[in-house]
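input
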Amino acid sequence: MTLTPELLLDTAVRRMLTSRPELVAECDLSSPAGLAAVRNSLNEADELAVVSVIRSVDLPGWVRETCLFALSLDEATARAWRRSFTRTIFLAGQPGNLRERFALTRVAPDGSVAWVGPAPVAATRTLRRLLKTFVADRPVDAAPPTVVELPTPGGRAARHALHRDLYLAVSGHTVGETLIQLNHLLVEAVQDGLINGGDRLTLRHVPRLNGLRAPVEALRVDIDHDNPDRLRAYAALTEPLPQR
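output
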């Protein structure tokens, strides 16, 4: 896969079309600046967001729990959140200390992460004032391929289980940046039916995605934080792997 500027832009525009087609018609999407203009045009008063409270990060476990959170949402709620480009606010905190004061949508069994929402941004103001932003500015550690298995909610799969590779570009990226980019890819892949209960994902760390040989079905593209005039591919989900 050759990540040309044209491919990156086309991928980003298609995401815009899926989330907010009515806004796309009003904006020039021929450049990263145009893409940013669409997002900046959103009225925060009408926007939905998820708040994720993170105690600690074990990346394979976080991938599993993020997928399970996305799978727990009903179709109407997921669709409404998609219109806000699956905005997620990451905060640092102890989910176990918040249960009595806040209505948590989901808490990971090990207490490492919890989610609130999707909800109007104003509805989580108290929680956001209580906790600090989750930063995690350390580099992503090199790691061998790891298989993440998603349990089947209720014991019944909506379709036969699939196995995909989940590639993560780690060169120059911090843990905090990685969670933001990977979160968008995972939850939108769930909403598009690419990831479901019972599936397996092999998490693979690579320096960059350019030159990836595996056929890709979903690609996470965003503004390059080192060069705001360019786009960068941050993560990729492959087509299903052959059954063995």
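quick obs: The helical segments are 5-19, 21-24, 32-40, 59-72, 75-82, 125-130, 175-191.
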